[in-house]
Amino acid sequence: MTATLAVARTVAEVREAVREARAGGKTVALVPTMGYLHEGHLSLLDEARARADVVMMSIFVNPLQFGPAEDLDRYPRDLDRDLALAATRGTELVFAPTAAEMYPHGAPAVQVVPGPLAERLCGASRPGHFRGVLTVVAKLFGIFQPDVAVFGQKDLQQATLIRRMVDDLDIPVRVEVAPIVREADGLAMSSRNVYLSASERESALALSRGLGRARELWDAGQADAATLRATLWSEMAVPGVEPEYAEVVDPRTLEGVERAGPGTVMAVAARVGRTRLIDNAILP
What we know:
The protein has 284 residues and is of the alpha/beta class. It folds into two domains: 6-178, Rossmann fold (3-Layer(aba) Sandwich), CATH 3.40.50.620; 191-279, Pantoate-beta-alanine ligase, C-terminal domain (Pantoate--beta-alanine Ligase, Chain: A,domain 2), CATH 3.30.1300. Helices cover 38% and strands 19% of the residues. It is built from nine helices and nine strands. It has helices at 11-23, 39-51, 79-88, 99-102, 122-125, 129-144, 156-168, 198-219, 225-236, and strands at residues 6-8, 28-33, 54-59, 93-95, 148-152, 174-178, 241-249, 265-272, 275-282. The strands form two sheets. Strands 1-4-3-2-5-6 form a six-stranded parallel β-sheet, with helices on both faces. It is globular. The model has no long low-confidence stretch (mean pLDDT 97).
């Protein structure tokens, strides 16, 4: 499905488009992204289309969520390609602002502090990252005022924090989380996969392979979290992979558990070459 796609560059343009949709009695879904779209992002648009009358997307590489030594400057960007892909999934509007439009006074003096949920998993090695994520998402929620917002399961800690922010601050938006979309070889789709060389990509399969092996143990009746964690670590112990964490956690608190159960999350992160990758699986 190809839509007539509008591109907004300013907050005022977005608000006018949302006002027109509301005047027509339509509900609005938002899919926030940093662009360089792949099938995983497009699946979020499909989920949004199923849940609202009008689908809108933001494409903004948010400087607040990048640390000093991270890949802000080299993060992949291709807006023309992104717009063409978004149109094929029925997207009505893409908001593609500059940093100056989003942060006209520089980094905002008031930001969203995520609290203890951000101190584990990815937050342990990326201080300040989730403060930047929640601040830009809160800002986007204020700009669009959507009925529903759709995020991906691959960034599960991010989605958990956003849900908590919405609940704690009484933000009137429903947050939906869509399943991970994988490449044919099992690698979780990510814009950063483009960084991987052929040999690095082969090494990167250790993440999904470890999750698959731990899932097999769970299916066979193994609920001891220490055993599942050991399996994740073992499968990532291959040349070219530098594991960062392998955890079995409660989906609401992100704290480690002793016994896995339905809904428990197995989460992994590692560096493959210069590329940091994350992946997870939710036990059924």
